């Protein structure tokens, strides 16, 4: 069995990912494409079958207009954020939900549950106005063969990640490790322990000098001299995929 049960996970730099299901449906996580200094140019105008948005910061939704226009299916986020997207002229299939909720996305063959995240969520308009966009969130994505992926979004470590394990038992996680604005590698290693995952893909590091955490540090904290966990650290370069 492949590591991700036929799901292809492509890192587009920073915290942006393309998830391709076994049936070939493409799900974009956090639409920061052309503005993202790490995103390969061939993805700047890519088309998608669904979009998941964790929160409203510019380094996660900076290219929402283009991405949403190029999306043929549901655009999912916390209710406050999707309501704001509609006010900005987004005309796609906006699916507003909230933490604790689960929605089926039949068009792409997945089920999405919204979890907590500890961060903030605002968008700065061109005139400098800062718009609050509800709370940040994470997603648990259950694919058609019951492979389950936890996308943490931007967050600190929090103890209720153990409840995510109890409720959804994710197989793998996408976790931020950059420090300063999110978890650092040590905290991310403890998140892996709480979640019980066997595979972790680090993100939200290296884009800017402040984001100093590294996958090597994460692997060290997971390793035999620290937590001694059997968790594979899958390190990608922008545009590279794991299956």
Description:
This protein has 243 residues and is of the alpha/beta class. α3 links the parallel β5 and β6 (93-97). α4 packs parallel to α5 (185-195) and α5 packs across α6. The protein has helices at residues 58-61, 64-69, 79-87, 161-168, 185-195, 215-222, and strands at residues 8-11, 17-20, 26-29, 50-52, 74-78, 93-97, 102-105, 110-116, 122-124, 130-132, 137-142, 148-151, 172-176, 199-203, 232-233, 241-242. The chain has a single domain (8-242), classed as Ribonuclease Z/Hydroxyacylglutathione hydrolase-like (Metallo-beta-lactamase, Chain A). A seven-stranded mixed sheet has the order 6-5-4-3-2-1-16, covered by helices on one side. A seven-stranded mixed sheet has the order 7-8-11-12-13-14-15.
